[in-house]
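for the writeup, i need someone to sanity check this before i put it in the appendix. the sequnce is what the collaborator sent (i think, or maybe the updated version? ugh). structure was predicted straight from it, no edits. if anything looks off just tell me and ill rerun, i have time this weekend
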Amino acid sequence: MITVGVIVLPERSFRRPAGDAGNAESYPCRTILHVARGLTPDDVVRPAPNAALLAPYLEGALKLQEQGANVVTTTCGFLIPLQDAIARQLRIPFVASSLLQIPLVHRLVAGRVAVITADDEALTKEYLHLAGVSDDVPTAVLGLQRNKEFADPYLKGIGGLELQRIETCVASASELLLERFPDIKAFVCECHNLPPFAQAIQRKTGRPVFDILSLVGFALNGVNKPIFA
């Protein structure tokens, strides 16, 4: 049975909706969740990579592999610094971050890629370089940390999710990016909480939108090829 393993941060003030990388209903197959206990978004979303994350995430990835996962992923795009170190230790694909898609998306659309992130002050060029994004790839980055509807539940652990309000602020962010950079040809959602709102970005901008579920789907196709007969 094809299985996705997901390393999730502990629940704080909300239940993840379908589409969120940490909700088992987001995947088209059996899903196993492993909680990286003792960690918070503050440990992950920061301007400099946190070396202390490697041990708990590697432990989680290895456990999920032992439990039958065919692909392992995470719930935060800021975990891109862990990509190579963990992938080398596994027999199966490891998808640390949605940011890995940016170079490919740029090649697919031959133009600027907009990145909607949880925090644009924390998403430094170091993270983009670790994802393989060279300086000659045109990007436009905007964070959601200034939006109370998003920041309170997702970054601060305050209150519950008001999905309609979050959708509105995400769509507005995409519209603002397009106003600033009319040459944007595609969007990539860094934040792994954003797939439930990706369709709103597409409606608002008319551009293709890629997120962590796009990338996990790509990896799943690699380990579970369809039979054409």
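The chain has a mean pLDDT of 96. The chain has nine helices and eight strands.
thx in advance!!
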